[in-house]
């Protein structure tokens, strides 16, 4: 019985799947990866700046602000 690491077996499973995938499937995966890159990298950098890092200097100040906002009653 072959006892490879579970992560290595999963990695080989996906590599084998991508190698045997049709050209159409590879193009779709490329489009998906480009969209994910745009969503998580480009949009985050330009449209969602780190509010807490830019407005507060220490972790304690950040945590107090978050606690105040979360526990503020309306």
UniProtKB/TrEMBL annotation:
Which sequence ranges are marked TM in the entry? 28-47
What InterPro entries does this protein's entry cite? DUF4492
Kindly give the Pfam families that the UniProt entry links to this protein: DUF4492
Q: Which domain of life is it from?
A: Bacteria
Identify the keywords attached in UniProt to this record, alphabetized.
Membrane, Transmembrane, Transmembrane helix
Task: Name it.
Answer: DUF4492 domain-containing protein
What organism is listed for this UniProt entry?
Maribellus comscasis
């Amino acid at each position: 019985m072959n006892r490879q690491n579970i992560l290595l077996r999963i990695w080989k499973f996906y590599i084998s799947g991508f190698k045997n995938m049709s050209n159409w499937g590879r193009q779709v995966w490329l489009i998906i990866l480009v969209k994910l890159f745009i969503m998580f990298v480009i949009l985050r950098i330009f449209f969602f700046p780190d509010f807490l890092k830019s407005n507060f200097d220490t972790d304690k100040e950040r945590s107090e602000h978050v606690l105040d906002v979360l526990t503020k009653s309306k």
